[in-house]
Design a protein that fits this description.
There is one protein chain. The protein is α/β, with parallel strands linked by helices and about 500 residues long. The chain is about 40% helix and about 20% strand. Strands 14-15-16-13-12-17-18 form a 7-stranded mixed beta sheet, sandwiched between helices. It binds NADP nicotinamide-adenine-dinucleotide phosphate and magnesium ion. The site of NADP nicotinamide-adenine-dinucleotide phosphate has 28 residues, from helix 8 and helix 9.
C-alpha cells in the first residue's frame, strides 16, 4: 500500500493559518501501534505556543468571521464536507497507521463524517435574535440574542480523533466561534491532515488552530488560559478533574465527555443470535478503546453458561491483526502503556477470582512488535471486582450473572459512571422499564453503539456533563443575552 506523502517529514503546529515549529523546537515521535515503528514526528507545543494560538483565535474571532451570515457559514461547511470526502481514503489510512484501528473501521467513518458535517451545516442559523414575549408593565420590547462564546479550547483523546475532532470543528464552524485544538500526542496525525484540508476548503486563518503536544503542558496551558472562553474536553475523569480546576481562573465554560463502565443487560428471553455478537462487539469494537463500551455484561442466570460458551465461540472467530489487512476486525491497542494497563487488569481479574473464559494474552509471532492483545472474556464476575469497577479501555468483557430485573437494574447503576447502557430482550415491558431505569445518557435496546449526530450523547455522574450532537450542542457554543428596550 502506498504511504501518503503527508507521512513524510516532521509535522508543525497550525497557528493563525501558518504551519510553524514549536517554540522549544522539540518533537514527539508518532508511532505506528501495529509495528512499534516511528513513522514521523509531531511538534511538542507548550505554553508559549498555546498563547500564540489563542491570540490568533481571538484575532480571528474579533474579525469578520464571527459576523458571517448563516448562508456563508453553511456554504463553507458544505465545501469542507466535499474536500474532506474527496480525501477520505487518505485520512482513513493516516488514522489506521497512527492509532491502529482497522481500515475496515476508519473507512466506514466516511459516511459518518459526511453525516456529522452535514448536520452542523444545517445548524448555522443558531446564533439568532428573537423577540420574546414579556409581561412587564409599560411598553417594553424584549429580545433574546444568542451569540458565539468566542475562543474554544478543544482537548481530545487518541481513540478516534478522525471522528472525535468533529465534535469541536462542527459547532465551532456552525456558530462562528474559533478554536484551538489539542489532540492526544499518541494520535495527532489525522487532525493535522484534516486541518490542512480545512484551510484548503477556505476556512479563514486563525479560525481553527492546532497545537500538538503533551496534555500536561499544552493541554494544561489551554485549560488554564485566561483568554479561552470554553473548553470542550473528551478523555478520562482524572484529567477532567484537573481541567475543572484549571477552568476556575476565568470561570470558563466546560464541557466534559468522559469514560464509562457501561452495563449491557441480557435477559433470558433475548434473541441470542443477535445478543451474543452485539454484546461482544459492544466491548471489543476499536479493541475496547471506546468510551461507551458495554464492558459489564449482565446475563440472566438461566442462560449464563450458554451465553459464555457462545460468546467464547464468537470471540474465537474475530481476526486481530495489522489494520492495513482488509480482513482485520480488531487492531492493536494504542501504545505500550495502554497494553501494560490492560494486561495489568487481566492479571487483577484472575487474582480477584474471575474465571478467564477466553483470551487474556498478548499476541506474539509477527504481531509481537505491535501492541496486540486477544479479546478477553471473564465469566462469573461480581460487580464489586476491580475489573467491573474501573474503566479498562481494552477488549476485556466481564460477564456478571443476575437473577431478576430488579437486581439487574441495581447492579447496572452501582457504578460511578453513567455514559451508556444496553438491554437485550424480546419483552416490550422489560425494554421500557430497564431503559428508563438505567442512569446513563444513552441506552440501546437490542443493539449497541449506534449514534446519530442529530440525537447526540452525553453522560450522567462521573461520565461528565454537556451534550455532543443535536441542536443542544450547537447552542452550547453560544451565549444567550436578554435585551430590554423601553419604548416610551
Ligand atoms: P486522557 O488521558 O484524559 O487524555 C485526553 C486528552 O487530554 C489528551 O489530549 C491528553 O493529552 C490531554 N491531557 C492530559 N492531561 C491533561 C491536563 N492535565 N490538562 C489538559 N489536558 C490534558 O484520556 P485518554 O486516556 O487519552 O483517553 C481515554 C479516555 O477518554 C477514556 O476514559 C475514555 O472513556 C474517554 N473517552 C470519552 C469519550 C466520550 O465522548 N465520552 C470519547 C472517547 C474517549 P496527551 O494524551 O497528549 O498527553
Ligand atoms: Mg500513533
Amino acid at each position: 500500500m502506498n504511504m501518503p506523502a503527508f507521512m513524510n517529514g516532521a509535522k508543525k503546529l497550525l497557528i493563525g493559518g501558518e504551519w510553524i515549529e514549536a517554540q522549544s523546537g522539540e518533537r514527539i515521535d508518532a508511532i505506528n501501534p501495529a509495528t512499534g515503528d516511528v513513522m514521523c514526528q509531531i511538534a511538542r507545543g507548550g505554553t508559549g505556543d498555546v498563547d500564540r494560538a489563542v491570540a490568533a483565535a481571538r484575532h480571528a474571532f474579533e474579525g469578520e468571521w464571527s459576523r458571517w451570515t448563516p448562508h456563508q457559514r453553511r456554504k463553507l461547511i458544505l465545501k469542507v464536507h466535499d474536500v474532506l470526502l474527496d480525501n477520505f481514503d487518505e485520512l482513513a489510512l493516516i488514522e489506521t497507521l497512527d492509532m491502529g484501528a482497522p481500515l475496515a473501521r476508519t473507512r466506514a467513518f466516511r459516511e459518518w463524517t459526511s453525516q456529522v458535517i452535514q448536520f452542523y451545516a444545517s445548524h448555522t442559523d443558531a446564533a439568532t435574535t428573537e423577540a420574546a414575549p414579556n409581561s412587564l408593565p409599560g411598553n417594553f420590547m424584549t429580545l433574546k440574542r444568542k451569540a458565539p462564546v468566542g475562543v474554544v479550547g478543544g482537548i481530545i483523546p487518541w481513540n478516534g480523533p478522525l471522528m472525535g475532532q468533529w465534535w469541536i470543528f462542527g459547532p465551532t464552524l456552525a456558530t462562528g466561534c474559533t478554536a484551538v485544538i489539542k489532540p492526544a500526542e499518541d494520535a495527532s496525525l489525522s487532525v493535522l491532515r484534516t486541518a490542512e484540508l480545512l484551510l484548503e476548503a477556505g476556512v479563514p486563518e486563525g479560525v481553527i488552530n492546532v497545537v500538538t503536544g503533551y496534555g500536561r503542558d499544552a493541554g494544561q496551558a489551554l485549560a488554564e488560559h485566561m483568554d479561552v472562553d470554553r473548553v470542550a474536553f473528551t478523555g478520562s475523569y482524572v484529567t477532567a478533574q484537573s481541567i475543572i480546576r484549571a477552568s476556575a481562573g476565568n470561570i470558563k465554560r466546560v464541557q466534559l465527555e468522559l469514560g464509562g463502565k457501561s452495563p449491557d443487560i441480557v435477559f433470558a428471553d433475548a434473541d441470542l443470535d443477535k445478543a451474543v455478537p452485539g454484546a461482544a462487539m459492544g466491548v471489543y469494537t476499536n479493541s475496547g478503546q471506546v468510551c461507551v463500551a458495554g464492558t459489564r455484561i449482565f446475563v440472566q442466570r438461566p442462560i449464563h453458561e450458554e451465553f459464555v460458551a457462545r460468546m467464547r465461540d464468537f470471540t474465537r472467530t474475530i481476526r486481530v491483526g495489522n489494520g492495513l489487512a482488509p480482513d482485520t476486525q480488531l487492531g492493536p491497542l494504542i501504545s505500550q502503556r495502554q497494553l501494560d494497563r490492560v494486561m495489568n487488569y487481566v492479571e487483577i481479574g484472575g487474582r480477584e477470582g474471575a474465571r478467564l473464559a477466553s483470551g487474556g494474552t498478548r499476541l506474539g509471532g509477527e504481531l509481537a512488535s505491535g501492541f496486540f492483545v486477544e479479546p478477553t472474556i471473564f465469566a462469573g464476575v461480581s460487580n464489586d471486582m476491580t475489573i467491573a469497577r474501573e474503566e479498562i479501555f481494552g477488549p476485556v468483557a466481564s460477564i456478571i450473572p443476575f437473577d431478576d430485573m430488579e437486581e439487574a437494574i441495581r447492579l447496572a447503576n452501582d457504578t460511578s459512571f453513567g455514559l451508556a447502557g444496553g438491554v437485550w430482550t424480546r419483552d416490550l415491558s422489560t425494554a421500557h422499564k430497564v431503559s428508563d431505569a438505567i442512569d446513563a445518557g444513552t441506552v440501546w435496546v437490542n443493539c449497541y453503539g449506534v449514534l446519530d449526530p442529530a440525537v447526540g450523547f452525553g453522560g450522567y455522574k462521573m461520565s461528565g456533563y454537556g451534550w455532543k450532537g443535536s441542536r443542544e450542542h450547537v447552542d452550547s457554543f453560544l451565549y444567550p443575552k436578554a435585551i430590554y428596550m423601553n419604548l416610551d
